[in-house]
Design brief:
Length: 974
Amino acid sequence: MPLLEPNPDDLRPGTHRGPSPDRVPDLVAHGSPGRLRDELLALFGPDKVLWQVSDLVRYASDASPYRFVPQVVVVAEDVDDISAILSYAHDKGREVVFRAAGTSLNGQAQGEDILVDVRRHWAGIEVLDGGARARVRPGTTVARANAGLARYGRVLGPDPASAVACTIGGVVANNASGMTAGTARNSYRTVASLTVVLPSGTVVDTAGPAADDELARAEPELCAELLAVKAEIEADPELTARIRAKYELKNTNGYRLDAYLDGSTPVEILRGLMVGSQGTFGFLSEVVFDTLPLDREVAAALLFFPSLPAAAAAVPRFTEAGAVAVELMDGNTLRASVRVDGVPADWARLPGPTTALLVEFRAPDTAALEAYERAAAGVLGDVELVAPVASVTNAFTRDARTIGGYWKARKAFVAAAGGSRPSGTTLITEDFAVPPSRLAEACEALLALQAEHGFDAAVAGHAAHGNLHFLLAFDPADPDDVDRYAAFMDAFCKLTVERFDGSLKAEHATGRNIAPFLELEWGPKATELMWRTKRAFDPEGVLAPRVVLDRDPRAHLRGLKTVPKVEAVADACIECGFCEPTCPSQDLTTTPRQRIVLRREMMRQSPGSPVEDSLLTAYGYTAVDTCAGDSTCALACPVGIDTGALMKRLRHARHSAREERMAALAARRFAAVEASARLAVATGRRLGDRLPASVTGLLRKAVRPDLVPEWLPEIPGAAAGDLPATERTGAVAVYYPACVNRIFGEPAGFDGPSLPQAVVALSARAGKPVWIPDDVTGTCCATIWHSKGYEEGARVMADRVVEAAWGWTAGGRLPLVVDASSCALGLAREVVPYLSAHHRELHAELTVIDSVVWAADDLLPHLTVRRKAASAVVHPTCAMRHLGDEDRLPALAAACADEVVVPDDAGCCAFAGDRGMLHPELTESATAREAAEVTARTFDAYLSANRMCELGMQHATGRPYHSALLQLDLATRP
């Protein structure tokens, strides 16, 4: 293979694929239609228009069972862009769909014409009135908004299970609620005001003092129609009563007709209608919420019952006792949840009918919580529980880690059960509500209906509110399977409406799957009022057609997404999008979900077709090269899919045999490589930045950017050649200075010892001396190789370093302290797949400790802090998240500074060893939001725990980051 450029053939999917029934004939290699592309490029510029076929494909899927390929994607940056695209659509007779997180389960975030990305530039929260209110932009995740509110003791009302990924725009547009929101804390009840861009381009701030007058001048026909519909509803007592009754249950099917009853002016009616409008009335550019108290005292129990009806029958008892959440998980859900990290493996062996309730109480103080616990104990004495509940007396716990584990299993419902579906099938997630008093009856009816149609579905839900979710898997490529699903949906909708007078959509909003059944639930009169409302806002039908209103009785069977088999590591992906907020490349190229979506699209195409070739050509940079490989996606994914590992395998696949041999040779001769690297850094620093930058720039053009690092001004000087002298006798730990700290010195301007000197001094000062082996030079944690996909080199170094570490630590009797968190992770876990059987046995005897953990747990209690900085900001590394010890860095910083700040937007810096020098644009994009927080003020210390992460953050912020251990040395130095 030529060295100049990676061969796309090396990324081509395997030959196991067969003909795909959903291959899209209008998906063409050149991407967007030429005229549409050119007109939008002229209107918005190249940075805001995505038109290549790979762009269109990665936006064609969301968390729903549908797949619609847009004609073009516009990345809107501000309200002017929104107005411009709406004006263009009106002029050209085109359609527009807004998309933020793409976590919609019913296709609301998909379009077949112009798709507008309103996530990338639309994040931000402003806390108002001491936390009583919050102004939130639509691209902000619920979790991020709550992080900003937590320090004020407040929280948003809506609490969907997808809070880590779903954004405020989608939450309000769908009136999503969640585990505790019910009908009182959802968006409809807690949105104080909002700003909307109507299809005409009119911008309405419903909180404006003259909002009604301004709306009347700008949109007189809209105002008149809203008041006319209001009058018609109020003149019909039967319809009014029906509307009120429908919203006593959780209900997001159709438009909020009660907005006409709750609002007295056009603007008040508009505010209510926009909640739950599913992107069909306008664009929400910001929302102001009334927040709620964050009750910090919590007790919870996971209780197991012999059957689903038995569990359902117990729900009202716990609700009456004051439980804020009563979540139901049936046997299929419990068994599927064993895919979730931390869930007990014995759940897989639970008897089929076993059903669990997750019951949680929250209170503002301990006394109130104890009262709830006493009430819960009374309920427990009257219900029939089964193993694995050990005893009634200890069923409830206040332990935050245990409770977090319960909720992790519950929130992973869709992804965990979906990940267990047969390969090649797609997943339907349905969501309905019945009167809570009839929940047990509804459960029995649902189970019978599923069995009648041959489905073994998983069921879970917010049982306290009569709200259940169930999952079905079927093969959209099989017409008989589609007919089976269609028959089930017809029967299910009739059952829910005719037997229970329930809601066909409790919190996921109508979407494409329920649109054909809207009139079944609401009747012709109310449904026609919804059509009138849509025409009033959007007379030309520009926004999101067919998402809420569709007269086609088989519309829900159109555009169903087949799921071609891909690499085993990614095959379980249901494209839920939970991985996206944590991905360093989310605003630059692709996300983990999109990387998998693109792989699946390659499988849909004929081998060697122009479309496949175009996808492969783009994939090298947008997916493989710009993946940081940090694998935080695996932490966010409910079933642990590691897309970073997949990208490393693809890097390996495109290496030539010669490149693999050279990488292995570098591993065998790493002592010389290490010395050469230190010399190169020293030489480069002496020459100044301009010449090294010019030389590396020329080499990057001559070879390829993914092989030659770019010289950055932040690169420090070389480390001193000699490590500190230490004694083996009396040492309580072996200290392993990572190769990065043996090559690079401390940042320019830092006045103090080197990191190895500081670690040795701190350990001695605390009475915990460490020993540095004489032969550490020439060893490495092997991350350099496996992160780049050089598997033979990784094997060579993994075996060498583990054998050496086993000898250094006297067969594992001493801990191995590593002074770079990524290297601690590498030695603790990531080397294992590359080890020989013998070396795996040696590795199992090692105890690897991150130096920050060593300092926080073992040294700090024996140190005297003599001086503190006034303030410090810390950058937790992604390796710390993997190791589960990210809390130690702030704790260590707190010993060194009076004020410690962890940025709300802290995430992976994407420097990833040298990837930040191979692709500086990746680090710049990944750190943009965190850098904005850091640079908004001045801190006395900028701390982290990995030299390359510190370099990356310095590049991003212009601030002098250094190790927290250096700061601790300064704070405790005599």
